[in-house]
Write a structure and sequence with these properties.
Layout (H helix, E strand, L loop, with lengths): L14 E14 L2 E14 L3 E5 L6 H8 L7 E6 L2 E2 L5 H10 L1 E4 L11 H10 L7 H14 L15 H13 L5 E5 L7 H18 L2 E5 L3 H6 L2 E6 L2 E5 L1
Parallel strand pairs: 3-8, 3-9, 6-7, 7-8
Antiparallel strand pairs: 1-2, 1-4, 4-5, 9-10
Helix pairs in contact: 3-4, 3-5, 4-5
The protein binds adenosine-5'-triphosphate and magnesium ion.
The site of magnesium ion has 4 residues, from helix 1.
Length: 240
């Protein structure tokens, strides 16, 4: 698979991420929790959408489904015009590695790899990725951008929560993804550091046409996005 095939060109009107009728249930013993009950959304190139909602509302669940990391019980997701649910697992993995940049709420850094190797990881998982030397260079640039230039050879356990969060962000941007899904990307950052991280994300969205979906509890972050949507009772409601 080459890098041209991996470009998500988007559907009608520049829509890059689209989902409809998403439902998701979890069985907990005899109890069933219905987390999503028909959630739908669409995001265009260059657009930033904030997803807000109470703790436990299902925001991370939704983001995992949009990022092809989890399957819905019903409903569909289209990334760059392709219906994710109908793809082979190989193609789905290729989209995850090449088109989507995912910032996990709990970072998920590899504990046995240093900071630079963690950032380089997506390029190793992606056939169209950079060669080792170029990947190291890009990882160094990204770490610089998130203010961690001096920590390139540290191990994750040597970093604070907010520093690990910024490594996770740099990693998500490694393959210059068309779609960036960020789960509370500034949750552990002070206002100034968080502001700089967000400015970086908004710049990518604005200047490079990336579609950005940010789950956030911060009103400031939500206000900086083009649109806001609230997840409540399993569905998404537009917020004015
Ligand atoms: N693997 C799982 N098994 C069972 N229940 C789950 C699982 N994952 C999530 N849930 C439940 O689904 C609900 C939604 O969880 P989710 O993590 O999506 O919420 P959230 O909106 O991201 O919350 P927060 O703002 O606290 O991160 C919660 O009640 C949670 O307990
Ligand atoms: Mg969450």
């Amino acid at each position: 698979m080459n890098s041209i095939e991996m470009t998500a060109t988007g559907g009608a009107g520049g829509v890059v991420v689209e989902a409809g009728g998403l439902t998701k249930r979890y069985e907990m013993g005899r109890k069933t929790i219905e987390v999503l009950r028909g959630a739908s959304l669409s995001v265009r190139r260059g657009e930033a959408l904030a997803v807000i909602g109470a703790s436990g509302a299902g925001k991370s669940t939704l983001l995992h489904i949009l990022g092809a990391l989890d399957h819905p019980d019903e409903g569909w997701v289209r990334i760059g015009g392709e219906l994710v649910g109908t793809l082979s697992s190989r193609r789905r993995a290729a989209i995850r590695a090449g088109v989507i940049g995912f910032v996990f709420q709990s970072y998920h850094l590899m504990p046995e790899m240093d900071v630079t190797e963690n950032v380089m990881l997506p390029s190793m998982a992606f056939n169209g990725g950079l060669r080792w030397k170029a990947a190291r260079r890009r990882a160094a640039e990204l770490l610089e951008q998130v203010g961690l230039g001096g920590r390139a050879n540290h191990m994750p356990f040597e970093l604070s929560g907010g520093e690990q969060q910024r490594v996770a962000l740099a990693r998500a941007l490694m393959n210059d993804p068309e779609v960036i899904l960020a789960d509370e990307p500034t949750g552990n950052l002070d206002d100034e550091t968080g502001g700089a991280v967000l400015e970086n994300l908004f710049m990518l969205s604005r200047d490079r046409g990336r579609a950005l979906i940010v789950v956030t509890h911060s009103e400031t972050v939500a206000a900086s996005c083009h649109r806001r949507t609230r997840l409540a009772d399993g569905v998404l409601h537009a917020v004015e």
